[in-house]
Amino acid sequence: xxxxxxxxxxxxxxxxxxxxxxxxxxxxxxxxxxxxxxxxxxxxxxxxxxxxxxxxxxxxxxxxxxxxxxxxxxxxxxxxxxxxxxxxxxxxxxxxxxxxxxxxxxxxxxxxxxxxxxxxxxxxxxxxxxxxxxxxxxxxxxxxxxxxxxxxxxxxxxxxxxxxxxxxxxxxxxxxxxxxxxxxxxxxxxxxx
Amino acid sequence: xxxxxxxxxxxxxxxxxxxxxxxxxxxxxxxxxxxxxxxxxxxxxxxxxxxxxxxxxxxxxxxxxxxxxxxxxxxxxxxxxxxxxxxxxxxxxxxxxxxxxxxxxxxxxxxxxxxxxxxxxxxxxxxxxxxxxxxxxxxxxxxxxxxxxxxxxxxxxxxxxxxxxxxxxxxxxxxxxxxxxxxxxxxxxxxxxxxxxxxxxxxxxxxxxxxxxxxxxxxxxxxxxxxxxxxxxxxxxxxxxxxxxxxxxxxxxxxxxxxxxxxxxxxxxxxxxxxxxxxxxxxxxxxxxxxxxxxxxxxxxxxxxxxxxxxxxxxxxxxxxxxxxxxxxxxxxxxxxxxxxxxxxxxxxxxxxxxxxxxxxxxxxxxxxxxxxxxxxxxxxxxxxxxxxxxxxxxxxxxxxxxxxxxxxxxxxxxxxxxxxxxxxxxxxxxxxxxxxxxxxxxxxxxxxxxxxxxxxxxxxxxxxxx
Lengths: 193, 467
Prior knowledge:
In chain A, helix 5 links the parallel strand 3 and strand 4 (about 115-120). By secondary structure, chain A is an alpha/beta fold. Chain A has 9 helices and 7 strands. The radius of gyration of chain A is 18 Å and the shape is globular. Chain A has a single domain, classed as Alpha-Beta Barrel (Aconitase, domain 4), CATH 3.20.19. A 7-stranded mixed β-sheet of chain A has the order 4-3-2-1-5-6-7. By secondary structure, chain B is of the alpha/beta class. Chain B has 3 domains: about 10-170, 2-Layer Sandwich (Aconitase, domain 3); about 175-290, Aconitase, Domain 2 (3-Layer(aba) Sandwich), CATH 3.40.1060.10; about 295-465, Aconitase, domain 3 (2-Layer Sandwich), CATH 3.30.499.10. Chain B contains 15 helices and 19 strands. In chain B, the strands form 5 sheets. In chain B, strands 5-4-3-6-7 form a 5-stranded parallel β-sheet. In chain B, strands 17-16-15-18-19 form a 5-stranded parallel β-sheet. In chain B, helix 6 packs parallel to helix 8 (about 220-230), helix 12 (about 355-365) runs parallel beside helix 14 (about 390-400) and helix 12 (about 355-365) runs parallel beside helix 15 (about 450-455). The N and C termini of chain B lie far apart (about 55 Å). The mean pLDDT of chain B is about 95. Chains A and B meet through helix 5, helix 8 and helix 9 of A and helix 2, helix 3 and helix 5 of B.
């Protein structure tokens, strides 16, 4: 994973609430057995019509493809546990998703793939929705979101462990594996199986 | 963190008994997983990851595999299966190969137990009270019906559990939903959970584990409890739980994967899996059972629920209006009378034997008109066999509905069972998101009885008009 420390980008604004993972990655793209190349299917049914032709959705523009921050409506990422959703976003070029609420499983999956989910104060969220495309700087070191155009500076929460993994570009398997002795003891205490 | 109070909830108890390493300010807890269910869609990349790292599967005996999502629900005349794409077939073959390589018990094509992962697990008795259970599938919450802490995970976490039998996790908050009183005529467990989601909203349970409490759940069958817990995620809660009781113990008795110990003694230990009196929750919701009526959805998320005899509510914002426009319905109108193109009875929410009985009971009162395609998809080979032993399939096919092979089918619509753009589907599944059952398809969620009533009426009707 590519480390994430600070990042400055204009935003892609998707203001609708409850954007579910079926919108982010429709189920018919889930039959693949690798995780590569899903970016072209991200938000597929918004970006392509029934004949497979590109729509005029902003996500199809070169401008959007140069941006790495999505501001989504409330309860972003609800629904299915498919990790194909953050795989698709990451492959499209997204590193940060900002909303006033982000669904639990999507949030967990995003963090595993170098995508930072930021749940921000509702006032900052509304400001971002009202100012689509504003430039923002995400500073993971100081846990701050700095919004251009006088949108202000806002603190966000990210737990120490996830922050460490994102900033170092490391995954969690190493830490889990380092618990091997504790896991073995736990199993022995409970008795197998 | 505040010190844990003496009185513990069911969730507190199951969580505490599975902590390998407690959480701290800097690190999440290491949580032990008793049972890991896997299927073809969310596991292949996890196996690849393990192989790249040279890691074995730590506890194949605590892992259980089946094929359900990409599997066809029809069989060709020559016995082959009509996969929607070659890639779907490869995905199923990959799961079979991975299970074989890693000695993971698999219920594949030749197993009389194969089924939707959340139908099969309980039927085998692999699911037992007090367990922690995960699966790369958000409807894993189903198993909370047995007093388990069960939740969906992503593929990276599937890899973590395969390699270490553990997950890194911070303890979610707790929520109790109390439903007391008498349920009215025609009100099923599906209506109870659709009512709850309409009340608390699609994000109402985010960050929480729900415990369902009250006489309504105590009096509910295991099938009903599974339907309720299954849809916890549709309110944003990863897990939903119901305390195990005699109903649970009677249902599980003699299941093949139970431990080889005295069953009654086992039940005695399971009886401790209840919330202590005076335990506290981060949030409590109280619902009067008498307020619940047969429900269906009118919009594009499961929180868009309305009683069959109520009118579609006014949109709260532009997004709600967009949902109404997508569904081609109007605020202030009734859902009754809407023309129906397809009916789907199945999914991990509603494909168990009780659901099949309900469907057959209503379908046998009429005939599916030519304008409607209705399919009934049992949740497992065991459900199929039982339904056929009871003659339900004859009632179902005599009505003009199709009787299919077990699988997820039109719930996720990735096996080729799907609706055409614009078609209206009354579905017993769990999600009515735009395009969920095919691009442009319009989904109305309802109970098996309501769906069957719609099938023979060719339109949405009040199930209470049937015997």
